[in-house]
Amino acid sequence: MNGGDEMTSSYDLIVRNALLIGNDTSTDIGITDGLIAGMGQLADAEAAETIDAEGRLLVPPFVEPHVHLDTALTAGNPVWNESGTLAEGIGIWSSRKLMLTREDIIARAERTIQLYLGYGVLHLRTMVDIGDPKLMALEAILEIKERYRGLIDIQVIAFPQDGIIGCPANEERMKEALRMGADGVSAVPHLENTREEGVLSLRKAFNLAERSGTYVHVFCDETDDENSKYLEVCASLALSSGIGSRVTAAHANAAAYYNESYFQKIMGLVKRSGLSIVACPLINSVMQGRYDSYPKGRGITRIKEFQQAGINVALSHDDIRSPFYPLGTGNPLDAAHMAAHLAHMSGRAEMRSLIGMITEGGAIAMGLEEYNYQGGVLRDGAPASFLLFDAKDSSDLIRQRLSPRFVFRSGRVIAETRPAVTNLLDTADNGRADLVIPLAMKMGASPNVS
Ligand SMILES: [Zn+2]
User: Fold this and answer.
1) Is the CA virtual torsion 55, 59, 61, 62 positive or negative?
2) Which position among 84, 146, 192, 208 has the lowest Cβ density within 10 Å, counted as fewest Cβ atoms?
3) 62-372: CATH number
4) What's the chain's Rg over C-alpha atoms?
């Protein structure tokens, strides 16, 4: 954007010397009114403020399409999940749910959002369990969504953890959740009692999403059972309802066990339906395969095959220290790192596409039209939201899994992380603490230190 008739372009801010993914030379980003207003060599341009990116890698904001703000940071309370199974996790969460208070939910959700912001997540979709008749958790998370609107975009999905047929009250609660402002509904068909009830639960969820113009985000086939075939039902319903772009099938682990001819049929169906697959490599690698003897399954869906077929695939970090997963930082690069291993995607182009799955892939699944990265390209005129990393390229980013040095949201820095500094200490002389000399000092010019 050029400043009218003037010869010299003028911006509010220029970020100089940033390295875009896939580029060898650095570029400057001109920002006006919080939007990207110019890219390239802007040496002659003027700006009210200039920031030197010093050659750092510029990455679009991370997108987390499947998180649980209501269960985060509860691991070990009231007890730890010692078996690591989904069944024990659900049992522990059932008792933890009874202890929920509004203050408890808000405090943990805020702490979790702060973690996400530090890692550069500026868009997230959270599930909220609607098992509580008063929908207290949903109300609290909707309040948090408003409170953090200027920093992070949050979509809220009404999640019937105990099923829709298995817990009939959840159908009415999903309707109430939509009236309260939820962005979509969910289903857990593989946890319903029978195949037929699973299909019926999906019909109900799709029906609600179709009528209300909202999203349907299905917990789909999160099991090692090759007979769990709800992905075909999701794709079929997405096709017949015409709302495929608003449909997500999360997990889809059973697809790893389908025979090849059935899987090929499903890939074609999923592709035509336009739905998105969200893979959760951290939680599923630890939770799946628990009932296998050797050889054990890897526990994740067929990320590479879906992606190569042209289906939108996003990666999610999913749980953070919950009854389902005791670990977790909130850093989407952890999910990409795990996916690189479990999906056999360690090639350079493959690692670049993994970064696409924690950015653009999530944005497509969430229907983020304003997102500034499309087709692997940063868009002129889109929000000036991006991350600057001390990394060289996509594979270096996944290798190091650092926090971004700076997080920009609409042209302003909203978070920064200083790099950790390690000093090697010389612990000679039997490690006497008073004789410990910083190695850096010893390697310096001081003649008094030998
Ligand atoms: Zn989850």
Assistant:
1) negative
2) 146
3) 3.20.20.140
4) 24
Q: What is the pLDDT of residue 24?
A: 86
**Phi, psi for 336 (deg, rounded to 5):** -65, -40
Residues labelled as active-site residues: 222
- Whole-angstrom distance, CA of residue 260 vs CA of residue 255: 10
Identify the helix (H) or strand (E) that includes residue 95: helix 86-97
Centroid of ligand 1 to alpha carbon of 70 (angstroms): 11
Q: How many whole angstroms from 318 Cα to the centroid of ligand 1?
A: 5
The pLDDT value recorded for residue 85 is 87
Ranges for all domains in the chain classified under CATH 3.20.20.140: 62-372
| Alpha carbon 178 to chain centroid, angstroms | 23
Q: 71 alpha carbon to ligand 1 midpoint, in Å?
A: 10
The sign one gets for the Cα dihedral 253, 232, 308, 383 is: negative
pLDDT at 22: 87
Instruction: Quote the CA–CA distance of 247 and 241 in Å, as a whole number.
Output: 10
Query: Coil, helix or strand for 290?
Result: coil
**222 with 284: CB under 8 angstroms?**
yes
Candidates 307, 308, 288, 306; CA nearest to 298 is 288
How much is the pLDDT for 438? Answer: 52
Strand-pairing partners, residue 250, are 219, 278
Residue appearing with tokens 């879906």: 306
May I ask the CATH architecture of the domain 10-59+376-416?
Answer: Roll (2.30)
By the 8 A CB rule, do 184 and 142 touch? no
Which of 157, 162, 72, 59 lies closest to 110 in space, CA to CA? 72
Q: Which helix (H) or strand (E) holds 216?
A: strand 215-220
d(CA 68, ligand 1 centre) in Å: 6
In angstroms, the CA 186 to CA 161 distance is: 9
Q: What is the pLDDT of residue 86?
A: 85
Which two tokens mark 309?
Answer: 């077929």
pLDDT at site 181: 98
pLDDT of res. 434: 56
pLDDT of residue 3: 42
- Beta-strand ranges (E) seen in 252-368 are 276-279, 313-315
Residues (pLDDT < 50) of the chain are 1-6, 439-450
Q: Where in the chain is the domain with CATH 2.30.40.10?
A: 10-59+376-416
